[in-house]
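Dear support,

I submitted the protein below through the web form. The confirmation email said the job was done, but the results page showed an empty box. After a refresh the structure appeared. I'm attaching both so you can tell me whether what I see now is the final result or a partial one.
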Amino acid sequence: MTWIEDSEDGLRMAITHNNQLVYRGGFNDTYQRDGFGVEFSDGQPTQTGEFVDGTLVHIYQRVVNSSKMIEFGGRGNENNLSIPSRRPIYIGGFSYNAERNRCSRNGRGNQLDDSTGVCVAITEWIDGVEDPSCRQEVTQRLHENRGSVPQREETPLPREMVSDPLTAEEVNISGNSWNTADLSELAFSDLPRLKRLCVGDGSFTQVRRFIVRDLQQLEFVEIGRNSLSFAFSGYPQRRDDGVFHIANCAKLRHVAIGAKSCSDYSSLVLSHVDALTELLIGDYGFHHSSEFRLQRERAMSVCRRAAEAEDCGIGGICAGGGAQCVAERCVSSGRFI
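What the results page shows now:
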């Protein structure tokens, strides 16, 4: 059902489905979504954006859960529908005002630099107005450490997975393996000669923290389909956990993640990977991710259109599943891509 409402900002259109609100916002002469609008699921806002003739072209804000949203920079005519093209400028609390049809910053949140994606301040907000007395500037010292993996005690890799860590040049994980509930974290480090890390289809489905760090000879990381996800056999649900982090791998030039792998992971971070030239992510990869960041010391171009997947040299991982578009532009150090 569609109807027109009168508000303090003028006329707006509301659309419901099965008695649940799905859209409220601007419209054109043919009653298509047009201009600023808010989309809903189960009666709750899911995102705000700019529409043109019924098509969403720019996302302003995305609701992560009932107490957190992500706000993106850029103008309304800039297409940022693919995750890597979004530039987060705020992550934190919010409130929705139905009369004004706006999601406003509310409560505690992190303010991010538009060009680097780095947190510059911890802030407090009341209905979209910042309380300057609560603002905490993030120090340069924190910025200097932003590319490192947060240190914590790491469980050694099982010997059956890597028999000789000091000499191994390849690690190949067979499909449908290592799916036990007790394997929730993996950290590939202290493998001084490792050049290639390959994970087959349907493996590591219980792993929620996948770390690859400080491997100076590593060149390739390839993850098959339906791995590193609870949702390997269904639609991915939004979760707040799930970390995929590659850091300090100077020769790494190729990363490929197959369709539906990491589909319910919340974070993908690649830092200090200056040699990286190919990044491919299959359909539903990092589908609900709230953090997607590439940090390099020099600019790069990453081409990830599905139509060009065969040219990227990944072969079977992309065949049939397509490659989710990330970017076809240069990405500077630390920028969210």
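Response: this is the final, complete result; the empty box was a page-load delay. Residues 84 and 337 are 4 Å apart (CA to CA).
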